[in-house]
Amino acid sequence: MMTFSFWHRATALLALCVLMLSAAVAAPDAPAAAASSAFYLKPADAAWVAALPVEANAATQAWMDRIPAEVKARSDAYFEGGYWLDLWNWVWGLGLAALLLWTRPSTALRAWAERKLKRTFFVDACYGAMYAVAGWVLSLPLSIYQDFVREHQYGMATQSFGEWLSEHVLNLAVSMVLSAVLVALLYAVLRRSGARWWLWGGLLVSGLLTVMVAVSPVFIEPLFNTYKPVEAGPVKTQVLAMAQANGVPADNIFEFDASRQTTRVSANVSGLLGTAAIRLNDNLLRRASLPEIRAVMAHEIGHYTLNHVPKMLLQMGLLVIIGFAVSNWLMGRLLARFGTAWRVTRLSDVASLPLLVVVFSSYMFLISPLINTIVRTAEIEADYFGLNTAREPVGMSEALLKLVEYRKADPGPIEEVLFFDHPSARTRIHQAMRWREHMLQGPAAASAAAAPAH
Q1: SS3 letters for 216-272?
Q2: Using CA atoms, how far apart are residues 2 and 96, in angstroms rounded to an integer?
Q3: pTM confidence score
Q4: Which residues have a Cβ under 8 Å from the Cβ of 135 and sit 6 or more positions away?
Q5: 408-416: Cβ within 8 A, 24+ apart
Q6: CA-CA distance, 212 to 252, in Å (whole number)?
Q7: Tens digit of pLDDT for each residue in 326-382?
Q8: Collapsed DSSP state (helix, strand, coil) of residue 346
Q9: CB 258 within 8 A of CB 225
Q10: What sign does the dihedral 99-101-103-106 (CA atoms) show?
Q11: How far apart are CA 199 and CA 238, in angstroms?
């Protein structure tokens, strides 16, 4: 009875938080629209582009000077606030793990599942699903602030609270299924492989990540957005031509209705093992010119052609294995010290999951600069591929200015290494302007300039 009383009180408190927050943001539409329009950067006209200096440093500075001071300040505040949110999410996770380890609901759930379900696999699956629910409920106040209130404050969200919450609940349902499968399989491996569980568990997670990359575009992402073929026209013709010329097995490109959730522009070439698809959101189609779309999609095609997804799966798989090895070492010591108080004395007990999550997530938090560098390196490679494929340095730079709406444009070098999983706008625009400078001053340009006029 004490267990259920605890959960009832916690749920009531969280429901009160939800109601208070929803009342505070019940009608954000008008302020959000005003903030959003003020946040947008006006596109360059033909005269400005014609006067753009050839020299890369001067040209880059010309692009950066187009960012109004108020937009830069707003973008910097939004992005830098994300640093603190990363920290608070980690601290919040520590608190959730401590709550579940030092109170009885977690082990009570495990004991109840053992009595009712008998088979260990189903016990672990049940615990995994309920752990997803507990994390969702206990993190709901932070999620509301981070993903709804704050996004409206900065003019990037387009959903009402009810729409956002219903989608958040759908995401919980997906998470419950995935958590049940992952936890059941991981703890089955942990029990059967003993001291080397970290190796086989890491290989299992790597395999599941690969499956998720392959099936997500087909079965999961359509739950949240509607995908339809892009209408016939220059965008479809030119993007398909670039894709097919670079080995992307696609005979169509798709748009999705991201505008129902956000004002951000985005695109991707996603999928694996025959599920690859070229997709761009309706914000990009509506707000970007054809040169910009060509530049963005050539970059995304580059990720596919350069095999970035398989490479990253291998790199992340190695990091997961190392993380599980660290977790195995540290959890053994923590369980020896506190296991009796937690009523969890074995790694193979599924009630050790909160401890595994907090130890592994702490490891991932600490190595986030390394993960950012891996991703940032791939983005730089895709940028160069995109420039050589689309040959649109001005279009690429114009598109990058749109990203300044939510990504800090000009960080310091250490800040960029530590916190950026994409190169900054200044870094990427400078790459584009260097490419442009070399093309304008290279042998082909010199030959064209020396050729007689017709």
Answers
A1: HHHHHHHHCCCEEECCCCHHHHHHHHHHHHCCCCCCCEEEECHHHCECCCCEEEECC
A2: 19
A3: 0.86
A4: 96
A5: 408/75, 408/76, 408/79, 408/80, 409/64, 409/67, 409/72, 409/75, 409/76, 410/64, 410/72
A6: 22
A7: 999 999 999 999 999 999 989 999 999 999 999 999 999 999 999 999 999 999 999
A8: coil
A9: yes
A10: positive
A11: 45
Q: DSSP letter for 194, please.
A: G
**216 within 8 A of 323, measured Cβ to Cβ:** no
Rounded distance, CA 138 to CA 128, Å?
15
At 194, the pLDDT band (50, 70, 90 cuts) reads confident
Number of neighbouring beta carbons within 10 Å of residue 44? 18
349 strand-pairing partners:
none
Strand order in the sheet with 253-256: 227-229, 253-256, 277-281, 267-270
Q: What is the pLDDT of residues 292-312, one digit of tens each?
A: 999 999 999 999 999 999 999
Q: Give the C-alpha separation, 430 to 439, whole Å.
A: 14
Query: What are residue 227's DSSP bridge partners?
Result: 256
Q: Are 282 and 259 in contact (CB under 8 A)?
A: yes
Rg (CA), the chain: 25
Distance CA 116, CA 108 (A): 12
Cα separation of 335 and 346, whole Å?
Answer: 7
Written as six digits, the tokens of 450 are: 């020396």
